[in-house]
Amino acid sequence: MNDSKHQPQVVSARQQMDNAIAELWQSCREQGRDLYCRAGCGNCCTLAVNCSYPEAMMLAASLTVKQRQQINDRLPLLAQLCTTAGDLKEFLHSYRHQGDGCPLLDPHQHCSSYNQRPLSCRALLSTRPPPWCGVDFSTLHPHEKQAFLSSLDQNFVAYPSHYLAQPLELAAALEKSLDEEFANEYGVNISGNLIWLLGLELTSQVGKRLAQREQGLVEWLLEQQERYPYLLQVTKRDHFEH
Ligand code: SF4
User: Fold this and answer.
1) Chain centroid to CA 188: how far?
2) pLDDT tier at 242 (50, 70, 90 boundaries)?
3) Distance from first CA to last CA of the chain, Å, rounded?
4) Half-sphere exposure of 31 (CA within 13 A, CB side)
5) C-alpha of residue 85 to centroid of ligand 1, in Å
6) pLDDT per residue over 127-141, tens digit each?
7) 140 contacts: CB under 8 Å, gap ≥ 6
8) Largest CB tally within 10 Å, which of 9, 19, 43, 193?
9) Atom of ligand 1 nearest to the CA of 120
């Protein structure tokens, strides 16, 4: 398993995120605003989570044999959901309903890789009770949906979701900077679905092969992106010696 040279940047990004979230909890408490995230909820872990490749590499390197198996066992289902979906919306819908949740969620609804979880998982802070994190909005009556949307404070949440906007914005900025560092080093940016990226690293050792400047690897990744567009995004840097 490749020991990512981007590990210090990932650790620092996670620390920034965790510090910002601790401050937000404090500030919400002081303002009398409720945040509902609690250990053992896990409702948001049925969402399709995206992450940067340096984060996926670091998480992949920390997985136990059992967790690796759980990731690998999930890949055929994700491939099927991706290749049968007509568009991104349909893919996200089927992911939520047929994707079986994150395989890293344990039977007690705790994240089994909590300290290694990606920025995008850390960034979801709910301003509504847990059932709202698992609700399928397409099944709500239009009046219920409208009542929910009207109840949201648009200066506070990432509208139309009920998740706080600030940590999501910070996570996006930190991921972008990790992506930039990675692309500066390897001439390619890889991002996408957390489970798919973990599978890519576990089965194909992409990080190690990029470090070895393996010929044809970036082209193979681009082909993979074409095959699985909702699971993998690859951007090649122009004028980079691969
Ligand atoms: S990595 Fe952990 S927190 Fe993130 S979706 Fe999976 S189980 Fe949930």
Assistant:
1) 19
2) low
3) 21
4) 10
5) 23
6) 999 989 888 777 889
7) 148
8) 193
9) 4
